[in-house]
Amino acid sequence: MNHYTLSRLQVGMTEEFTLTVTEEMMDRFYAITGDCSPIHMDAQYAAGRGYPGRVVYGMLSASLFSTLAGVYLPGEHCLLHQVDCKFAQPVFIGDTLTVKGTVTEVNETFREVTIKGQIQNQNGKKVVRAVIKAGLAQ
What is the number of structural domains in the chain? Predict the structure, then answer.
């Protein structure tokens, strides 16, 4: 876990991490949210709509921006204020995602940092983009 404070953050700083989406993650997300849409639950249904398998919940992918901000950039002192996402491509079970954030603004007055976030799959395709605003306790 990183421990950046507002005074240590600079425009252009970046952090990233990688993970692979598993069926267990999908099951846990369903257990928490109750979203039983067949596009996420039924591989045959998804195939009938032209997808190679179950489509990963968009909000599961977007939730990785919470990990980015809370663990990597800025890390421990962060409290999310806003995450504005654009879902560019579907994500599938087994995809390996790289989540990256770059600081685009540090606002001393409001003790807030703006981060440009993006998630790419193993093929280098951007699957989710975001603008993240996070406050810092220190």
Answer: 1
